[in-house]
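Priority: medium. Attachment 1 of 2:
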């Protein structure tokens, strides 16, 4: 078996796609709780975690940084957003229009990630031919 770091980018893209799918569920949950008193919107953090992991790497090139990542620790984290903020009398801080914008943005991100994954596998397929 050949030892290679070829799949490291695929691993990172997969983790990003998983975080995007989690964010989609989280946003859908926010929308479902639009009328729940004292509900606070939630969101998912992934990009900041990836950026921090890459920044903390001792390596210089992006390839080296990606190859050194521990992808098992790289994941999306759900957090409560603007917990102390509420513009409604019932304490809820979810705005359906804002959530719909976040949903559209996240769907575009997910589509881009899956397209990138597909492209990576097309490259693998071309090499194997």
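Attachment 2 of 2:
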């Amino acid at each position: 078996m050949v030892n290679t770091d070829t799949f490291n980018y695929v691993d990172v893209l997969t983790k990003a796609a998983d975080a995007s799918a989690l964010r989609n569920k989280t946003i859908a949950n926010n929308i479902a709780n639009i009328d729940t008193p004292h509900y606070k919107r939630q969101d998912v953090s992934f990009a900041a975690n990836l950026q921090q992991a890459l920044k903390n790497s001792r390596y210089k090139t992006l390839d080296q940084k990606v190859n050194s990542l521990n992808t098992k620790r790289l994941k999306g984290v759900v957090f409560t957003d603007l917990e102390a903020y509420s513009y409604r009398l019932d304490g809820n801080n979810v705005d359906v229009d804002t959530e719909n914008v976040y949903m559209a943005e996240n769907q575009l991100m997910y589509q881009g990630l899956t397209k990138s994954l597909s492209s990576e596998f097309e490259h693998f397929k071309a090499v194997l031919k």
